[in-house]
Amino acid sequence: MKIALLSDCHGNIAALEVAMNIVRKIRVDKVYFLGDMVGYYPNPNECLDIAKSHECIMGNHEYACLHREYASLFNPAAKNAIEWTLNELTADNIEYIKNLPDKLRNEEFGFLMIHGALTRPFEYIRDKHTAWANFKLFKEYIMFGGHTHIPAIWTQGESGEYDIDMVRVQDDFTFFIDSKKRYIINVGSVGQPRDGNPDGCFVIFETGDKSVSFIRFEYPVEITSERAYKAGMDRFLCERIFMGM
């Protein structure tokens, strides 16, 4: 079975449409969205409408739309984007995000999906200590997540719980699951990559040969930037997607 895992679309429908076209061409059997369909860019309803046909997790930007006190902790550009998003979301989509779960499990193939972390819901897993703390909190052999916007692979080796390594991924890359290890896999960001590569990113997990492929794709960044600019969004948001930051 081929399973697509996508995260952090952030209202960037131009990127999401390209990603979903690739998913269809690959003939994926199942699609999961790992949160943050909204925020930053000006097509949240269109992104959520695509998510509704699949399974989706609540990200911190969906949570911020429901909890203003949490949104107040965001940087000014992100906070303003949440306010803009709240004015745009349909009543149906507000109800939809209210009912999103904070995690999903695929019992058939034994993997867990979250947005940020298990230690704290929206903590970033970006160092060995945080990865180790999260490995302690799940039994599955793989946990997929997003949130950092940086594709990465964390491994826990067979020599013990402190045997933690990390590999960052920038380009198209495929690796095979080692049954003697456990994994935390960050699937990157569809709509706002932050690894220095402006190309969108998502993951295909092939359950047959246990391969995990990071898919990088170009999309019309200028369209998203222009739409965000016309919507009155922060200039930094309009420019950062050209640089992958």
Question: Would you mind describing this structure in some detail?
Answer:
The chain has 245 residues and is of the alpha/beta class. It has a single domain (2-243), classed as Metallo-dependent phosphatases (Purple Acid Phosphatase, chain A, domain 2, 4-Layer Sandwich), CATH 3.60.21. The protein contains 9 helices and 12 strands. The chain has helices at residues 13-26, 44-51, 60-66, 68-71, 76-88, 91-98, 128-135, 221-230, 235-243; strands at residues 2-6, 30-33, 55-56, 103-106, 111-114, 142-145, 152-156, 164-168, 173-176, 182-186, 200-206, 211-217. Strands 3-2-1-11-12-9 form a 6-stranded mixed beta sheet. The protein has a 6-stranded mixed beta sheet with strand order 4-5-6-10-7-8, covered by helices on one side. A hairpin with a 4-residue loop joins strand 11 and strand 12. It is globular. The model has no long low-confidence stretch (mean pLDDT 96). It holds the Pfam family Metallophos_2. One of its GO terms (cellular component) is cytoplasm. GO terms for molecular function: phosphatase activity. This is Metallophosphoesterase.
Give the CA-based shape. Answer: globular
| Helix/strand class | alpha/beta
CATH domain fold name = Purple Acid Phosphatase, chain A, domain 2
Number of helices: 9
Global mean pLDDT? 96
Helix content: 25-40%
CATH secondary-structure class = Alpha Beta
CATH superfamily: Metallo-dependent phosphatases
Strand order, biggest sheet? 3-2-1-11-12-9
Largest sheet: 6 strands, mixed
- Low-pLDDT stretches are none
Q: Judging by the overall fold, what is the CATH architecture?
A: 4-Layer Sandwich
Overall strand count: 12
What letter string, H or E per element, gives the SSE order? EHEHEHHHHEEHEEEEEEEHH
Number of domains: 1
- The Cα radius of gyration reads 17 Å
- The amount of beta strand, in percent, is 15-25%
Family: Belongs to the metallophosphoesterase superfamily. YfcE family.
Domain Calcineurin-like phosphoesterase: 1-209
Protein name: Metallophosphoesterase
InterPro entries: Ap4A_hydrolase, Calcineurin-like_PHP_lpxH, Metallo-depent_PP-like, Pesterase_MJ0912
